[in-house]
Amino acid sequence: MFPRQITPELMQAMKSVRFIAQHIKDADKDNEIVEDWKFASMVLDRFFLWVFTLSCIGGTLGIIFQSPSLYDMRSPIDREIEGRGK
């Protein structure tokens, strides 16, 4: 009923199926590597966002706290000049 030997066409078809299966496995491995790199880049992106945010806040606070009006209790010079003219 069925032939007992494998024909060359059947061998070629089996070889092609194996090739396709191996190609899909390799593509899956490549996709895993790509996804790992995407995750690593998201982690680094979030880390550098926090570094940038904290450095901006620190720089802003540093500039504000260096302002002489915060710790110098003398009256401003324009008020002194106005007071002399009257």
TrEMBL record:
Q: Which UniProt keywords apply?
A: Cell membrane, Disulfide bond, Glycoprotein, Ion channel, Ion transport, Ligand-gated ion channel, Membrane, Postsynaptic cell membrane, Receptor, Synapse, Transmembrane, Transmembrane helix, Transport
Q: Which GO terms describe its biological process?
A: chemical synaptic transmission; monoatomic ion transmembrane transport
Protein name, entry field: Neurotransmitter-gated ion-channel transmembrane domain-containing protein
Q: What is the native source organism of this protein?
A: Phlebotomus papatasi (Sandfly)
Protein family membership: Belongs to the ligand-gated ion channel (TC 1.A.9) family. Acetylcholine receptor (TC 1.A.9.1) subfamily.
Task: List the record's Gene Ontology CC terms alphabetically.
Answer: postsynaptic membrane
Predominant localisation class: membrane
The record gives the membrane topology as:
Multi-pass membrane protein
